[in-house]
Amino acid sequence: MIWKWIFILGGASVLFFAITAAERARLRKLLDRPCAGIHWHRRFPTVKHDDIHEFLALFTEAFAFDSVHRSKFSPEDQPMALYEARYIPHLTMDDHFEFESLDEVLDSRYGIDLSSVWHKDITLGELFALTQLTSTPRATKLS
Asked: What is the pTM for the complete model shown?
């Protein structure tokens, strides 16, 4: 009987590590990129560095990426593509509520309702441009 449980736990462990390795491989292309700051400043030349930095910090927190990777996201990155790279369909059962978190932070910080501007191919640059239309950003606490 104990061998049955050892076999089940061993199989579950192997599956967990295989899914984790697949996720890392799918995200490696993104996470191994250099800083994308130049792309942000070319697309938004009049925006302060701190505004871009804060937006990317809020995005990486909402999407549960390590904060050291925030400078690697470019204006052309699509949140949906990042989500799909992270989760393998039919193998991963749940997510970390990335879009719900992003909606919450965009609303609380900038007054932007993500559902009203959402389309499948929306980019970080498009979302950031919307934040610049807000006259007075609201205070928010970064964790």
From this structure: 0.77
Tokens found for residue 4: 């049955």
For residue 82, which of 127, 141, 139, 23 has the smallest C-alpha distance? Answer: 23
pLDDT digits (tens, 9 = 90+) for 19-78: 566 666 667 777 888 999 999 999 999 999 999 999 999 999 999 888 999 999 999 999
Structure tokens at 102: 């992003």
Phi first, then psi: give them for residue 115, nearest 5 degrees. -65, -25
Q: How many beta carbons lie within 10 A of that of residue 20, not counting itself? A: 10
**Contact between residue 37 and residue 54 where contact means Cβ atoms under 8 Å apart:** no
- Three-class DSSP labels, 97-135: CHHHHHHHHHHHHHCCCHHHHCCCCCCHHHHHHHHCCCC
Look at the alpha carbons of 81, 65, 39, 133 in this order and tell me if their dihedral is positive or negative.
Answer: positive
Residue whose C-alpha is closest to residue 111's, from 135, 141, 77, 129: 135
Residue of 15, 19, 31 lying closest to 63 (CA atoms): 31
Q: What does the pLDDT read at residue 90? A: 56
| Pairwise CA distance, residues 104 & 66, whole Å | 19
